[in-house]
Amino acid sequence: MAVKTNLRIFIFCLTFLLCFVQLSNAQSKKTAWDKTLRGAWIQDDQQGVKDVILAGNGKVCEIVVGKNENSAVRQAAEFLAGDLEKICGSKPKIVESASKNAVSIRLVTLGNSDIPSEVEATSLKGKWESYQIITSGRNVWLVGSDFRGTAFAAYTLSEQLGIDPLYIWTGYRPEFHNPLVLKQTNFKADSPTFRYRGCFHDDEDILQRPFNDQGYPKLDGDISLDWYKKWFETELRLRMNMVVPYTRAHRRFEVQKIASDWGLFFTGQHYDVLVSNPFGFDRFNLAKERGVKPVWNWFTNREGMIKYWQGGIDENRDLNVIWPVGMRGLSDEPFEFPNGMTDEQKAAIFRDVIRTQVDLVTKSLPTDKTPIFTFTMYGEMFEYYQKNAAAFDLPPNVTIVWIDNNDGIMSGLPKDLGRWKHGIYYHLAYWWGPNTKQEVHTITPARIAQEFEKVVKAKATEYMLVNVSEMRDYIMGLRMISDITWNAPAIFSNPNPAEKFTAWWTREYFGSKNSNTSQLAEESYNNYFSIIDTADKLWFSSNCVEQLLGKLYEKIGNRNFTPINPDTLKILQTRIEKQDKAYRVYNSAQKALSLSQQRFFSVDVGIGMLIDYRHSQAALKLNEALNAPNATLMWQAVFEARSALEQLEVELARGEYPPFERWYHETWLREPLFVTNPHRPFNQIRSFISNEGLGSLPRSKQRWE
Predict the structure, then answer these.
(1) Mean pLDDT score of the chain, rounded to an integer?
(2) Has residue 391 got a pLDDT over 50?
(3) Taking a C-beta distance cutoff of 8 angstroms, is the pair 150, 172 a contact?
(4) If residue 466 lies in a helix (H) or strand (E), which one and from where to where?
(5) Which stretches within 167-285 are classed as H helix?
(6) What 3-state DSSP class applies to 252?
(7) DSSP for 134-194?
(8) pLDDT band at residue 171, thresholds of 50, 70 and 90?
(9) Under a CB-based contact definition with an 8 Å cutoff, are residues 429 and 202 in contact?
(10) Closest CA to 700 of 675, 670, 665, 667
C-alpha cells in the first residue's frame, strides 16, 4: 500500500514539475511564426501580482548596465531606452547601479554581476549568444551567456513591447501605453542554429554622395554614417551578429568600428581578402598609401600584395573581425593566372595564397584572440574547388562557404564535412545578368525554406551571409532568414514553413483586430510570388514593350515588320489575367489597411507587382497599335500604353517618401536604357511619341554584355 502511495506522489510531483517547466518555457516556444510578437508581453488586462509596471503615474523604470559590460550591451541599452520612450512617452535613465526601491531593467552578462536565483545560470553558462528574460519582483532581468546574448535580450524585449525590428523600413510606430505593464515573463533563448549570421550591403547605387556628371550617385562616393547605423541597428534587432558594410563605396574606419562596438563582426565579401579593400587599391590610392607597387599580381608582386594585405590587418586588428581568405581581382572579377597553368597548379597557388593569409593574421593578432577565417567558393573558385577539393588542402580553421546560384538556389553543399566547418553565401539581392534583382524582392518564401532546410541538413551552419544590397527591398526575406538561422529546428519541425511564415508576416504587419486585412494581404503576397517567382519574369513585359515599339517604328517607316511571336503574346495574355486578379485583391487589401500599413504594403507588394503589371498593360496596348487598321486607332492605343507607363512613374514616385528619396531614380546600374531599369519602357515610348515614330528604336543595353 505504501509503495502505491509513494508511486502516486512521485507521479503527481513529476506531472507538476513537467507542467511548471512547460509553462516557464511557453513564451520561448512561441517564436516559430505562431503568434504576433509585437506587443505580446504588454498586460492589457487586469494587472497580475507578478507583472512589472515599467511606466505609470509619472514614473518610468531605470535601465541598469554595469560599468564592466561590453559596448554592445551599452548600445542595446541606449536603443531600449529610446524604444520605451516611444511606447510610454518617458525615457528611462541608464545607470550603472540600481537605485533603491526603483523598478529596473537590468542587463547583465553572466559572470559580470550578481543575478537572482530564478535565472538559470547553469543552462546559460558557456553557451553562444543564449539569454534569459525574467521578471523578479520589481525587476526585469536580461541575462546573457555572453555580451551579445545580453544585447539580444534587450532587442527581444523591445519587440515584445511593441517595437518593430524593421521599423526603419516599414515606418511602423508602436502603440502608446502609459501605464506600461510587462506581463510576468520567463523567456529563454538557446544558442542560435547558425553561429555567424549577417548582411552583405552589395552594389550600392542609391545612397552614395556626391552625384556624378550624369546626375547619378557617385559609384565610389560616401554613404552617410546615418545609413550605416540604420543597417547595423536593423541587423542587431534581428539578432544578427555580422556585417559586410560595403563593396564599392568609399570606406571609412569609423563605419567598421561602430559595427564592431555595437556587437557586429566586421567582415568582407568573397574578394575582399583580409578586409584589405582591393577595390580601393587604385581608386582610393591605397596601394600608394601602403607603400605598394600598384600591380595586383601574385606572380610579379608577391611581396607587394602581402604588404597590402597586412595593411588591412593592421587597420582592423583591434576590431571584431572575420577574415576572408582567397584570391580574386580588384573588382570582383576572376584572378588572372598565366596561360598554360593546369588546374592542379592553380589549386597549388590558392593553397599558397590562403596559407600565407592565415599565417599573416595569426602572427598579427594578440595571443588571446583566436582568428576566424572564411573561404567563399565564389565564381571560378567554386569550379576549381569542385574539381579537386583535396588539392586546396585548406587549413582546418578556415570555414568553407558554399554559394547559391545568385538566385536563391544552392549551387552545392558539403557531402562530407571533413575537418572543416561550413557555411553559405546567399542572395536576396543581386546585380549582373538575367538574375538581377535590385529594385524588388523576387526570392520566394518557398525557395528560402526549401534551400535553408537543405543547408541545415548538410550542417553548413557555421556562417551565413545574405546579400541585401541597400536593404529596403528585401526585408521580408531577411526576416525569414534571420528567424531560420536563429532557430531552424523550430521552423522545420512543422510542415509548410513558407506558408506559415507568409501567414505570420501578414498578421504581424497587416493584421487588424476588427477586419480580415491580413487574409487579403496574405493573398496579395501569394499572388505576387506566383507571378514573379524568378527575377527574369519581372522584365518579361518590359522587353515586350521594347520589341513592339521596334515593330511600330518599322510599320510607320513603311519597313517590313512581323507580328509579335504568338507564343510571346500568349504568355502576355496569361500574365495579364493573373495580374488583373492580383491587382483587384491588392486594391481591396489597401482599402482596409491603416495609413502606415498602406504605405509599407504599397512598397513591399505594390512596387514589384505594379512594375510588372503596368509594363504588361502597355505591351498589350502596343500590340493593339501594331494591328490597328489606321493611324488614328494606332496612336490612340499608343497613348493608352503611355498612360499605363505614366501611372507607373507616379507609383514609383510615391514609393520615394522620406527617408527614401530618389530610391527608384536612375543610377550607374540603372541607366536609362538598362534592361533592369523600371523606367526604360517609359523612356522608350516617350522617345517614340516625341519623334512621331520616325527613325529607329533606342535599344536597351545590358552592362554585363
Answers:
(1) 93
(2) yes
(3) no
(4) strand 463-467
(5) 167-170, 225-237, 253-262, 280-283
(6) coil
(7) EEETTEEEEEESSHHHHHHHHHHHHHHTT--TTHHHH---PPP-SSEEEPP-EEEE---SS
(8) very high
(9) yes
(10) 675
**CA–CA distance, 248 with 284 (Å, rounded to integer):** 10
Neighbours of 314 (CB within 10 A): 12
Describe the crossing of helices 302-316 and 343-364 by its angle, rounded to 10 degrees: 40
**Cell numbers linked to 620:** 498589350
Nearest CA to 236 out of 120, 127, 313, 147 is that of 147
Task: Check: CB of residue 535 under 8 Å from CB of residue 442.
Answer: yes
Q: Where are the alpha helices (DSSP H) in 557-607?
A: 566-592, 595-601
Which letter, b or e, does each residue of 259-292 get, where b requires 16 or more Cβ atoms within 10 Å of its Cβ? bbbbbbbbbbbbbbbbbbbbbbbeeeebbeebeb
The values of phi and psi at residue 292, to 5°, are -120, 140
Residue 14 has pLDDT above 50, yes or no: no
Nearest of 28, 262, 266, 318 to residue 148 by alpha carbon: 262
360 within 8 A of 306, measured Cβ to Cβ: yes
Count of beta carbons in the 10 Å neighbourhood of residue 191: 18
Give the contacts of 21 (CB within 8 A, at least 6 positions apart).
none
Q: Are 88 and 54 in contact (CB under 8 A)?
A: yes
What pLDDT sits at residue 703? 55
Q: Which three cell numbers, joined as nine digits, stand for 450? A: 526549401
CB 386 within 8 A of CB 380: no
Cα distance between residue 92 and residue 77, in whole Å: 10
Q: What's the pLDDT score for residue 514?
A: 62
For residue 460, pLDDT beyond 70: yes
Grid cell, residue 204, equals 550600392
Q: Tell whether omega for the bond before 659 is within 30 degrees of 0, i.e. cis.
A: yes
Phi then psi for 141, rounded to 5 degrees? -100, 125
pLDDT digits (tens, 9 = 90+) for 250-273: 999 999 999 999 999 999 988 899
**In angstroms, how far is CA 277 from the centroid of its own chain?**
22
**Residue given cell 537590468 in the structure block:** 106
Burial class (CB in 10 A: 0-12, 13-18, 19+), 103: buried
Contacts with 498 (C-beta within 8 Å, 6 or more apart), sequence order? 444, 445, 446, 448, 449, 450
Distance CA 697, CA 693 (A): 9
Residue 12 has pLDDT above 60, yes or no: no
* Three cell numbers, residue 508: 504581424
Q: Is residue 485 pLDDT above 90, yes or no?
A: yes
Distance of CA 92 to the CA centre of its chain: 31
Can you name the residues that pair with 134 across neighbouring β-strands? 141, 186
Q: Which amino acid is at 531?
A: I
What one-letter code names the amino acid at 518? S
Q: What is the pTM of this model?
A: 0.94
In this structure, is the dihedral angle defined by the CA atoms of residues 556, 557, 562 and 567, taken in order, positive or negative? negative
